[in-house]
TrEMBL record:
Keyword Metal-binding on entry: yes
EC number in record: 3.5.4.38
Named cofactor requirement(s): Zn(2+)
Organism: Homo sapiens (Human)
Protein name: single-stranded DNA cytosine deaminase
Length: 202
């Protein structure tokens, strides 16, 4: 995989964060998924922060049932796949237990959800928590089943609330010490998305 795609960034810019992590349930014109990650390793009773970073990958249009989507994996690597490629090549060891946390602007597509679920099934030493700002195509059964497959393999899937946006802002944004400024409707959107996710996973 192209190293410019596979290797993580340190942080994102403020405008990028505000534009991509706004939690309006249905939001158009956001063509990338941003994935911020924390990797911790378990040492005794404590977790040691090992690495943090940011991946970006395209959000492809919903696949139509009557034709196959052809994409170049070198230039259209989804953020989740970029993370797995980097993590497996650079970090993962069978003798270490990991706590991985994602903050994502979109929830995974069905294909990525399936790949991540398969990864978790093969690696019992990795625990994954996903905080997502928005649910991608949450009305579509394929996307719903993808989220369910993650949950069934032990991933904890949650909607980002105010405290999660603040944490993401502090740890993954070039903020220049400016505080996070919540947008109008953040809490209302959070409650709606949380309720929708609960309905999907129940």
């Amino acid at each position: 995989m192209n190293p410019q795609i596979r290797n993580p960034m340190e942080r994102m810019y403020r405008d990028t964060f505000y534009d991509n992590f706004e939690n309006e349930p249905i939001l158009y014109g956001r063509s990338y998924t941003w994935l911020c990650y924390e990797v911790k390793i378990k040492r005794g009773r404590s977790n040691l922060l090992w690495d943090t970073g940011v991946f970006r990958g395209p959000v492809l249009p919903k696949r139509q049932s009557n034709h196959r989507q052809e994409v170049d994996p070198e230039t259209h690597c989804h953020a989740e796949r970029c993370f797995l490629s980097w993590f497996c090549d650079d970090i993962l060891s069978p003798n270490t237990n990991y706590e991985v946390t994602w903050y994502t602007s979109w929830s995974p597509c069905p294909e990525c959800a399936g790949e991540v679920a398969e990864f978790l099934a093969r690696h019992s030493n990795v625990n994954l928590t996903i905080f997502t700002a928005r649910l991608c195509y949450f009305w579509d059964t394929d996307y719903q089943e993808g989220l369910c497959s993650l949950s069934q393999e032990g991933a904890s899937v949650k909607i980002m609330g105010y405290k999660d946006f603040v944490s993401c802002w502090k740890n993954f944004v070039y903020s220049d010490d400016e505080p996070f400024k919540p947008w109008k409707g953040l809490q209302t959107n959070f409650r709606l998305l949380k309720r929708r996710l609960r309905e999907i996973l129940q």
